[in-house]
C-alpha cells in the first residue's frame, strides 16, 4: 500500500476551500489510488469553521482520506507537506491601494514560504491560488531559498478553462476538441488568452474563428473579466470553478499533459519569450513525470506581443513594489 501524500490547504474554511477539500479527499487531486492526509491552515477566527468542514469530511467516509489536522501554525501545517495549496489571502477591500494589498499579503505568504522552507518534504509542490496569486507566489518562493524555485507556481488554469469554454461556445466545438490554448502573464485583468497556436479538431483556432475583432473586443475581455461577471450574477465570487482549476493544475503537474496538448501555469520564468527571469508568469507548459517545461519556439505575432508585454509589465511593477517593501 502507498504512503499517504500530505496535502496542506490554507484558507481551508473559505469558500474555495469548501469546494476543494472534498475533491482532494475523494482522489481527484492526485489519483484514485493515492491516499491523502489533509492539513488545514486557518487564521484563529477560521479554526472553528474548519473543524466543521473536517466533521463533514469525516462523514463522507472517503476511503483515501487517512487523516485531517487543523492548525493556525504554518510550521505545523507545512510539516512534511508534499503538496501545498495556498488559497487563503487578504482580499482587496474598497479604497485599498495596491501597496497595502501587497503588504498585507506579504504578511501571509512570507511566513508561509519560510515554514515551507523549514518543514516541507523534499518533493514539495506549491500552488498559489490566493490573489494577487503570481506575486504572492513570488513572495513565498523568495522566502524559501532551499526549495527549488520551480516548485512555486500560481494558478492560471481557471483562466485557461474559461478560455476553452468561450472558444468552444463561439465555434460550436466541444472543449475536448480544443488543444494548445495559452494564458500568458498575470492572473489579473491584463492576462492574455492566446488562441493563435490553439487547435480545434486539428485546425488552427485563429483561422477557424477568423474574427480579430471578436478576439480583441469579446473573447479576451470576457475571459479576463469573468470573475467580476460571476460576482455580479451569483452575489459571491467563483469558488467551485476556482477549486476545480486548482485540482486540474496539480493533477496535470503530477500526472502529465495529454500527448499533443499543453496547459497554462504561472511559473518562475527562465527568460523564455522575453519574460524577465524569476518573474512568476503564465506560460504554455507540457508536464511529464511530475515536471513541467515551457513550450519553446512558438512564433509570437504583434497582436500577442503587445498583450504579453502589458501583462508582464504589470508583473514587473508588482515585483518592484514587493521588493521596495522588503518582501523579496
Ligand atoms: P475564497 O475562498 O473565495 O478565496 C480565497 C482566495 O482565492 C482569494 O484571495 C481569492 O482572490 C482567490 N481566488 C483566486 N482565483 C479566484 C477565482 N477565480 N475566484 C475566486 N477567488 C479566487 O475566500 P474566502 O474569503 O471565502 O476564504 C478565505 C479564507 O482564507 C478565510 O477562511 C480566511 O480565514 C482564510 N485565510 C487564511 C489565511 C491563513 O491560513 N494564513 C490567511 C488569510 C486568510 P480574490 O479576493 O481576488 O477573489
From TrEMBL:
The active site is at 187 (proton acceptor). The keyword Oxidoreductase applies. Residues 156-322 form the Lactate/malate dehydrogenase C-terminal domain. It catalyses: (S)-malate + NAD(+) = oxaloacetate + NADH + H(+). Residues 6-145 form the Lactate/malate dehydrogenase N-terminal domain. Substrate binds at residues 92, 98, 131, 162. Its EC number is 1.1.1.37. Keywords: NAD, Oxidoreductase, Tricarboxylic acid cycle. One of its GO terms (molecular function) is L-malate dehydrogenase (NAD+) activity. PROSITE patterns: MDH (PS00068). The keyword NAD applies. GO terms for biological process: malate metabolic process; tricarboxylic acid cycle. NAD(+) binds at residues 11-17, 105, 112, 129-131. Catalyzes the reversible oxidation of malate to oxaloacetate. HAMAP family: Malate_dehydrog_2. PANTHER family: MALATE DEHYDROGENASE (PTHR23382). NCBIfam families: MalateDH-SF1, PRK05442.1. Belongs to the LDH/MDH superfamily. MDH type 2 family. This is Malate dehydrogenase. The gene is mdh.
Amino acid at each position: 500500500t502507498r504512503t499517504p501524500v500530505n496535502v496542506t490547504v490554507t484558507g481551508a474554511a473559505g469558500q474555495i476551500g469548501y469546494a476543494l477539500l472534498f475533491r482532494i479527499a475523494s482522489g481527484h487531486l492526485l489519483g484514485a489510488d493515492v491516499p491523502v492526509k489533509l492539513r488545514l491552515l486557518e487564521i484563529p477566527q477560521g479554526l472553528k469553521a474548519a473543524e466543521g468542514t473536517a466533521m463533514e469530511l469525516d462523514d463522507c467516509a472517503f476511503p483515501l482520506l487517512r487523516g485531517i489536522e487543523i492548525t493556525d501554525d504554518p510550521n505545523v501545517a507545512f510539516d512534511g507537506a508534499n503538496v501545498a495549496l495556498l488559497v487563503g489571502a487578504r482580499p482587496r477591500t474598497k479604497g485599498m491601494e495596491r501597496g497595502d494589498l501587497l503588504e498585507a499579503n506579504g504578511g501571509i505568504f512570507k511566513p508561509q514560504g519560510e515554514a515551507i522552507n523549514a518543514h516541507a518534504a523534499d518533493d514539495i509542490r506549491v500552488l498559489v491560488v490566493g490573489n494577487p496569486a503570481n506575486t504572492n507566489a513570488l513572495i513565498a518562493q523568495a522566502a524559501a531559498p532551499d526549495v527549488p524555485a520551480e516548485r512555486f507556481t500560481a494558478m492560471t488554469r481557471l483562466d485557461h478553462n474559461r478560455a476553452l469554454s468561450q472558444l468552444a461556445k463561439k465555434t460550436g466545438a466541444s472543449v475536448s476538441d480544443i488543444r494548445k490554448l495559452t494564458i500568458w502573464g498575470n492572473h489579473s485583468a491584463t492576462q492574455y488568452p492566446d488562441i493563435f497556436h490553439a487547435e480545434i479538431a486539428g485546425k488552427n483556432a485563429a483561422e477557424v474563428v477568423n474574427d480579430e475583432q471578436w478576439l480583441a473586443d469579446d473573447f479576451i475581455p470576457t475571459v479576463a473579466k469573468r470573475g467580476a461577471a460571476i460576482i455580479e450574477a451569483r452575489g459571491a465570487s467563483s469558488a467551485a470553478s476556482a477549486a476545480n482549476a486548482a485540482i486540474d493544475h496539480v493533477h496535470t503537474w503530477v500526472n502529465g499533459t495529454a500527448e499533443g496538448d499543453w496547459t497554462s501555469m504561472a511559473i518562475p520564468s527562465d527568460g523564455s519569450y522575453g519574460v524577465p527571469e524569476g518573474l512568476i508568469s503564465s506560460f504554455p507548459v507540457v508536464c511529464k513525470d511530475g515536471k513541467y517545461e515551457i513550450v519553446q519556439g512558438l512564433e509570437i505575432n504583434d497582436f500577442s506581443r503587445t498583450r504579453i508585454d502589458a501583462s508582464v509589465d504589470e508583473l514587473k511593477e508588482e515585483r518592484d513594489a514587493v521588493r521596495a517593501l522588503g518582501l523579496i
